[in-house]
Amino acid sequence: xxxxxxxxxxxxxxxxxxxxxxxxxxxxxxxxxxxxxxxxxxxxxxxxxxxxxxxxxxxxxxxxxxxxxxxxxxxxxxxxxxxxxxxxxxxxxxxxxxxxxxxxxxxxxxxxxxxxxxxxxxxxxxxxxxxxxxxxxxxxxxxxxxxxxxxxxxxxx
Length: 157
Prior knowledge:
Blueprint: E1 9-14, H1 34-44, E2 49-55, E3 76-79, E4 83-86, E5 112-116, H2 141-147, E6 152-156
C-alpha cells in the first residue's frame, strides 16, 4: 500500500472517452492501451475518491472547425477574447457515443464525474476549468477534492 498515515488519495482519470480512443473522431494513438492499466490501478490500490473528467461539448462549441466558416481541422485561429484556438474535429458532443467513457473502463457507483468544455465559447483542457483560470468555465473538481479531504492526487488518462 502506498498510503501514509493521515493521507487521503484520489485517482483522477482524465477523458478516457470513445472519441479519444481507436475509431474516435479525435483518437489518440494507442489511447485504448491506458484502459487495462487504469483498471489494474483501481483493483490493486485503495483510493478514497475516484474522479473521472469528461469532455462534454455542446454541438455549437467554438473549438469545432465545423462551427467556424472556412476553418480546417487542426488549423489555429485567433478568436476574440480567447486568442489562439486550435480548430478541432467535432468530438465528445453531449449525449453522443463519442462522449461516453470507454466501454472497458471499470467504473463504480461512487465515482464522481466532472464534466468540462460545456461552455460553447471557450475550450477547457483542464479538469478544473478553462485555460484562463476559470474566467468562463470553472468545474466543481477543486470543491470535490476539498470536501473529501484529499491530500494526494494521482492523475491518469
